[in-house]
Design brief:
Helices cover 63% and strands 0% of the residues. The protein is mainly alpha-helical and 73 residues long.
Length: 73
């Protein structure tokens, strides 16, 4: 059997999809593991950034200028 991935853009769409599945009695599963991983990645990135700012304020590291950052792109 094939599976379908649906990615609602907001809570309203999510409620609509869940209500549709419920009313049609389709077999479904909600995979939130990917969402949890993304949240953790964001939190890790913020933590790392705050650590770099603290090191910079203590004079331990020098941050890149905007020009240096754009040159890397």
């Amino acid at each position: 059997m094939e599976s379908i991935t649906i990615k609602p853009r907001n809570d309203s769409e999510m409620q609509f999809v869940m209500e549709f599945i419920k009313r049609t009695k389709l077999r479904s599963s909600l995979d939130q593991s990917n969402k949890a991983i993304k949240k953790q990645e964001v939190l890790d990135g913020i933590t790392s950034s705050v650590e770099q700012i603290n090191q910079h304020m203590k004079g331990e590291i020098e941050l890149k200028t905007l020009e240096e950052f754009l040159d890397e792109l």
